[in-house]
Amino acid sequence: xxxxxxxxxxxxxxxxxxxxxxxxxxxxxxxxxxxxxxxxxxxxxxxxxxxxxxxxxxxxxxxxxxxxxxxxxxxxxxxxxxxxxxxxxxxxxxxxxxxxxxxxxxxxxxxxxxxxxxxxxxxxxxxxxxxxxxxxxxxxxxxxxxxxxxxxxxxxxxxxxxxxxxxxxxxxxxxxxxxxxxxxxxxxxxxxxxxxxxxxxxxxxxxxxxxxxxxxxxxxxxxxxxxxxxxxxxxxxxxxxxxxxxxxxxxxxxxxxxxxxxxxxxxxxxxxxx
Amino acid sequence: xxxxxxxxxxxxxxxxxxxxxxxxxxxxxxxxxxxxxxxxxxxxxxxxxxxxxxxxxxxxxxxxxxxxxxxxxxxxxxxxxxxxxxxxxxxxxxxxxxxxxxxxxxxxxxxxxxxxxxxxxxxxxxxxxxxxxxxxxxxxxxxxxxxxxxxxxxxxxxxxxxxxxxxxxxxxxxxxxxxxxxxxxxxxxxxxxxxxxxxxxxxxxxxxxxxxxxxxxxxxxxxxxxxxxxxxxxxxxxxxxxxxxxxxxxxxxxxxxxxxxxxxxxxxxxxxxxxxxxxxxxxxxxxxxxxxxxxxxxxxxxxxxxxxxxxxxxxxxxxxxxxxxxxxxxxxxxxxxxxxxxxxxxxxxxxxxxxxxxxxxxxxxxxxxxxxxxxxxxxxxxxxxxxxxxxxxxxxxxxxxxxxxxxxxxxxxxxxxxxxxxxxxxx
Amino acid sequence: xxxxxxxxxxxxxxxxxxxxxxxxxxxxxxxxxxxxxxxxxxxxxxxxxxxxxxxxxxxxxxxxxxxxxxxxxxxxxxxxxxxxxxxxxxxxxxxxxxxxxxxxxxxxxxxxxxxxxxxxxxxxxxxxxxxxxxxxxxxxxxxxxxxxxxxxxxxxxxxxxxxxxxxxxxxxxxxxxxxxxxxxxxxxxxxxxxxxxxxxxxxxxxxxxxxxxxxxxxxxxxxxxxxxxxxxxxxxxxxxxxxxxxxxxxxxxxxxxxxxxxxxxxxxxxxxxxxxxxxxxxxxxxxxxxxxx
Lengths: 274, 427, 293
Prior knowledge:
The complex is a heterotrimer of chains A (274), B (427) and C (293).
Chain A: H1 2-29, H2 48-55, H3 66-97, H4 103-112, H5 118-131, H6 138-142, H7 149-160, H8 164-172, H9 177-188, H10 190-206, H11 209-214, H12 223-227, H13 238-272
Helix pairs in contact in A: 1-13, 2-13, 3-7, 3-10, 4-7, 7-13, 8-9, 10-13
Chain B: H1 5-31, E1 39-46, H2 50-66, E2 70-77, H3 83-92, E3 99-103, H4 106-112, H5 125-130, E4 135-137, E5 140-150, E6 152-156, H6 157-162, H7 174-184, E7 197-200, H8 207-215, H9 233-247, H10 260-268, E8 272-277, H11 279-286, E9 295-298, E10 308-317, H12 324-334, H13 337-347, H14 354-357, H15 366-375, E11 378-379, H16 391-403, H17 408-422
Parallel strand pairs in B: 1-2, 1-3, 7-8, 10-11
Antiparallel strand pairs in B: 3-10, 4-5, 5-10, 6-8, 6-9
Helix pairs in contact in B: 2-13, 8-9, 16-17
Chain C: H1 2-35, E1 38-39, E2 49-50, H2 54-61, H3 63-94, H4 101-113, H5 116-126, H6 134-141, H7 156-181, H8 185-193, H9 198-209, H10 211-226, H11 230-235, H12 247-257, H13 261-289
Antiparallel strand pairs in C: 1-2
Helix pairs in contact in C: 3-7, 3-10, 4-7, 10-13, 12-13
């Protein structure tokens, strides 16, 4: 009986959590409308919205489908994730393990990067990127984010949690600092890396305001920018928009499912030892 | 994860070399980009509706055929990508286009800052006089609306017919309007919950009540632009009328922050009989299979005056453009009566020129005709120079009045004070 | 010599990420700090006009800023504490040997990846303010009078808070599950022998050992919820009146809608100062906790 109550609570809560996603999928499967409806079951279910949404951009710019946006997002997401995890973990390692002057202040700077709303910094940032000639190029979408305060913070915590003896043993084996970082420490925090892959990928997949500033033509749109095509000032094509949203969310959910195991034990290292 | 130290260092060095060389390369190519056999005009178009984009592309193709020496570089910016912010940042970084289509009253603000060219010298008098509303700032033409987007009264034919209420026309007075709206408001099963509202409005949008100020002979600012007059006797009366729709007569749901899409949804479900909205919305609603034949568009009522809110997408030419003559050519091409007619036919917007509005084509389409008729008394927002739009101030104060935190008079006095303090404050 | 080599090494490790910070974050940070002393609009063709501390004085006297700050505080407390409570509760349940727990974990994580724009729209439809609205008709069934969820200053901020709790529970839950998994099983066994019940286990072992996790979640959630924007922008626009206006919404209104970028920078630095102080206090508090583990 007690078990039954637990399951009941969990299912009710799951429904509460899933309603917007269910609504998104249901609307995507229903006939496209321009007035929004609340429904949890599709009427005349069909996949036409997905096909139409996929091909919709080609009606505005020849030869461009949502596939192009998907590709752009994938490239941006891949490079941001890989490069920032590398650079952040390097900084995190040295901030966790070496004693040097101003270490605390340097570390604090990385946390401070999270404290200013992007609306204010985006404009000087835009001016710099324009000065570099990176408008409408992948460089402009990727390079500003290949290091992040959030990542440095997270990795520093992860390295702190690893017993110092392991490192000392490696030192006795004659490994250099870079060697220790690469061969000993990185494999040990593999779970944190998996965690960061999720967070970074999710963040760079959804980032909206920055690509909006630095892209100028449709062939450089990322997915979130592409989705704006379905939403007008007055009229929104709900069927197409929700189909697009569904397509956009699938890779992230897949990534979460793949990483779930490591994700869960990974955060421990970052969170437990402050 | 068995990297070698050297490979990591090499990898990092390569990444940073690529980044730095791209900076050098791109800066060079940026400098050598200029020479061109064509004269290129960049045109930023706010809005990316499928029909609109198709039509504008056809028009540009036609223009390039007529003017083979000019090439148009068109950039479409969907409304959800905040074109006005993009233009602000373009101005701040000196990368604005030659010509752009922007929503009013943004055209006026950028003209205050002297970012756009005055258009008097590029247009002939006959054309200027043909416009229902041409956007002037300090007696200079700063932008040309290439269509009007007026707010008219959208209504459910089936609900009105059921109660035997005639089609809404401009002859309706406020009193008649309330009477009809009350007749339409209905509680089917007497459970105290209104099932159908005669009218629906929301204080999230200022035009929803400023229209009534205009109709009552008042305005936002005095004619000389020196002070705000929203707390004048007539204004108070008008806003009281608006608030009473919700609170006293209860013909509208009490909506202070609700988005119009909620009203549209309730309208589509048959829970609302009339509301004020634009032609885009009317077209979208008519295209719903469940609503075919049930939607009509009529005129909003009047009081002392006839007035409606009509914003528009207006064409501006930027002052820093090196190509103003050709940009003006494009502008004059787009507003040419035949092209305007073509555009409005395809997109469903109302013409901004009288000669086009009179075209018999529109007689066949009652909804289009209704919007055109409404736009005859339509007018846009105008602010004194260097003044931000009072939209936020007004809506917030009226919202508080609806909630009963202040009386309408107090709310408007507060708004007026704040608006006065903001006149010219951007300079 | 050795020392120089060491510092070079340290610099070599720090530079890849910190060079990016310097160019793309610190420079803009300093530049916007500089702008906060100017009368500046993005539209202006002329150079920004230096006004000294004028923006800061205006800010201190600006009632809307204070209201927005108060709302942001209410919002932060209203979001962070329940999110952490519910997140912890869910984590404890889903860390037990429950069938289908992977399904539930994924289900509760899905709001984290759902588009906030779409979610805000659908929630504002569900929280329909009319008496016949979805939530209201449900309340009436329960004998509770209907409420104006988005249309009254009593509930507007609350509605936004609900949406954000919904959005963040999954994030907190996942982190707590990780924290729970790191607690050694032996500790529980020992206390069970002493005859302790579920509640004692939770109170004497789980809660103290989760303290560091709690601090971590708290810091990140704090910074995140101080910068809330999208749900407010979509659901209430900050109204009615200013009852749900938050700092970042106000900053956006001033910078892009009222064209005062200088003043917007000032607001941003007020926010920065608050977060900065809070984080430092937080760090001091954390230091004392390190003994626990």
